[in-house]
Amino acid sequence: MAEYQQVKVADVIQETADAVSVVFDADFPYRPGQFLTLRCGDVARCYSLSSAPGLDRPQVTVKRIPDGYGSAWVCDNVRPGTVLDVLPPAGIFTPKSLDDNLLLFAAGSGITPVMSIVKSALAHGTGKLVLVYANRDESSVIFAARLRELASRYPERLLVVHWLESLQGLPTARHFAALRPFMGYQSFLCGPAPFMDVVSQALRSSGVPRERIHVERFISLSGNPFEEVVDEEPADGSEATVQVDLDGESHTFPWPRHKKLLDLLLEKGLAAPYSCREGACSACACRIERGEVKMLQNEILDQEDLDDGIVLACQSLPVTDTVRITYT
């Protein structure tokens, strides 16, 4: 069972007709663009932090989606004073430097982690930011007033481009050709899969290398990381050996072949990052430097990630007798 904390809700802000921001009466470290995993009734769900570290109280923004149990539970049940079970902040959708120039793409509630990055970069960085924000119509634009205020305060650093489907239709790759002067910026994408596919196509056709394209995807969790994990050991008890480079230190352990890598690292007392524990987020991603593993499930990494040796620790079992992994 994952270690979690209970956090009291300080406020609930109605952002649009179907989106709310849940503000926590808490203070914990996180990086712009990360997310929290909340216990929502009988399920667990990942929601991005829309606040900026050091500027706001921590908050997540949740948009009600059709037939979405978790989002409906939050919108219908969470009030000031509600106490929620929350896993530590996680995720790698965060700039390495807030001084970088950033080209940001968001659609719908995909603005949530992007908003955290925008506010953090403007307050603590020096780079220029271009934000392309797509929505169904004007009434569905989350943070509309806040974005206007930021664009007015930082006219030399922040350019906000709104795309409204009701007026302009669905965007295609050719619609982003005007952004070519900014294609050298670090690019961050968050939103529905069709939108991100179009944006990724536009960026790659313009020659943007993969290492400058950062994508955030979330899939509803089928399991619950707040519940006890049952680890059944096979009769043969065979083991591999794993070397782990984490937080500047190297550790070597026997690795039982039935045990997932993340479970082993947590059992050994290492602060390995994680959240969903079922291969539906990128919080536990690490790189294989030597050896081979197999993943039981993967809903988030694409083929290029796999070709680069990226795997999910929460789903990895050893194949070779020795394995070396690093966390970057």
UniProtKB/TrEMBL annotation:
Residues 2-96 form the FAD-binding FR-type domain. This is 3-ketosteroid 9alpha-monooxygenase subunit B. It comes from the Bacteria. Its cofactor is FAD. CDD domains: fer2, PA_degradation_oxidoreductase_like. The keyword Iron-sulfur applies. It comes from Actinocrispum wychmicini. The keyword Flavoprotein applies. Keywords: 2Fe-2S, FAD, Flavoprotein, Iron, Iron-sulfur, Metal-binding, Monooxygenase, Oxidoreductase. GO terms for molecular function: 2 iron, 2 sulfur cluster binding; flavin adenine dinucleotide binding; metal ion binding; monooxygenase activity. The lineage of its organism: Bacteria, Bacillati, Actinomycetota, Actinomycetes, Pseudonocardiales. Residues 240-328 form the 2Fe-2S ferredoxin-type domain. InterPro entries: 2Fe-2S_ferredoxin-like_sf, 2Fe-2S_ferredoxin-type, 2Fe2S_fd_BS, Beta-grasp_dom_sf, FAD-bd_FR_type, FNR_nucleotide-bd, MRET, OxRdtase_FAD/NAD-bd.
